[in-house]
Amino acid sequence: MNSNALTAMERAAGHQQRFVASFEKYFAELAGELDGLRLGRFPPRCLEALAELSLRGGKRIRVALLYEAAGLVTEGEVPGLLEAALSCELLHSHALILDDIIDDSPSRRGGLSTYYACREDVPENPQAALGLAMMAGDLAGFLALRVLLHADLPADRKQAMLDVQLGVTTDTVIGQILDLERDVTPSADEGLLESVCEYKTTRYTILAPLRLGLLAAGEDVAEHEESLRRYASLAGISGQMRDDYLDLFGDPDVTGKPVGADLRAGRLTYLVRELLAATDADEHHTVEAALGDPDCTPQTVDRIRDIAYRHEVHHRLRSAIDRYAEAASAEAASWRRHWRAEAVAFFEQLPTWNTRRTR
Question: Which Pfam families match (predicted)?
Fold first, then answer.
């Protein structure tokens, strides 16, 4: 890893470490703010389950993007950034909980998924467990807007930031719907894959934090919208491809989820499509038989990984990841004309770091 990428990683880690304490404080204070949490057993357990997932870890890349986006405009303190960061991470928790319910995923971030934690809470009533997990996800989504609404900001600036989060909330749901369509459509083309990536990754992982940080710093986002979208799209596809790569070639002790989770969930990812296109008839059958089989064994996943290595799928996917990352870096370099060079450098370096991350 080159020194520039390491610099971006260190800066992202610094934002992450500072944010964690604030996130812990937020959940501790929230428990005393919501009167309904003192009623019954399920309301406090719902918040507890959400906090457990939210505080367990994650890359917090949205937090880093948010603070660095404000840094494009100014190196001074920017009001509203913490609330925006909390909002981004709560919305991410909402998306993760929904994903794990849909995929029937038992683990997330090295522990039980919220859905499976709820199943342990009420093992005698699977329907109640499903409902409790859904409510934890809904709670996260609504809190994401609540925390931003309570930010101490000028009304016009707060409204603009809320508009961003309201839009991205809708986008993530549409992305999840498109994701379902992709996974039940064997003939799904590249366009559908890119639409899923656009709505599930690009808009809420990259573009929304960029917009929020710039808006908080008082910048006119509309003036730069086209370039921001290009950067977010290129970096988003590169990042999604890296996620797909790690699902088969990553270390589960680092990623926090078992190898082959996408295969077992039946996801027609960039990697799976590349794999299906490269294999002969027998190998193709092996991959198709595993796709969508929740009981697919580790031995079968190992065999599929060996098939991928034999056809150099890992090399082709890494090359594509690098191409998109390089294009994103070039787009960020064009920002030097109107924004602070130090912060621009972060956005230039970030896609390269993303291509080498291990989780």
Answer: polyprenyl_synt (PF00348)
By the 8 A CB rule, do 5 and 351 touch? no
Residue 213's CB is within 10 A of a number of other CB atoms, namely 31
Taking the CA of residue 288 as centre, how many other CA atoms within 13 Å lie in the half-sphere pointing to its CB?
14
**CA–CA separation, 104 vs 251, rounded Å?**
21
Cβ-Cβ contacts under 8 Å for 179 (sequence gap 6 or more): 196, 200, 267
Task: List the pLDDT tens digit at each of the 359 positions of the chain.
Answer: 444 555 777 888 888 889 999 999 999 999 888 887 778 888 899 999 999 999 997 789 899 999 999 999 999 999 999 999 999 999 999 999 998 998 888 888 889 999 999 999 999 999 999 999 999 999 999 999 999 999 999 999 999 999 999 999 999 889 889 888 887 876 667 788 788 888 888 898 999 999 999 999 999 999 999 999 999 999 999 999 999 999 999 998 888 778 998 899 888 889 998 999 999 999 999 999 999 898 999 999 999 999 999 999 999 999 999 999 999 999 999 999 999 998 999 999 999 887 888 87
Q: Which residues contact 20 (CB under 8 A, 6 or more apart)?
A: 55, 60
What topology does CATH give the domain 3-356? Farnesyl Diphosphate Synthase (1.10.600)
Which residue in this structure is represented by tokens 């990042």? 239
Give the C-alpha separation, 359 to 43, whole Å. 32
Spans of all domains in the chain: 3-356
CA 351: distance to chain centroid? 15
d(CA 176, CA 339): 34
Q: What is the DSSP letter of 80?
A: T
Handedness of CA 52, 13, 217, 175 (dihedral sign): negative
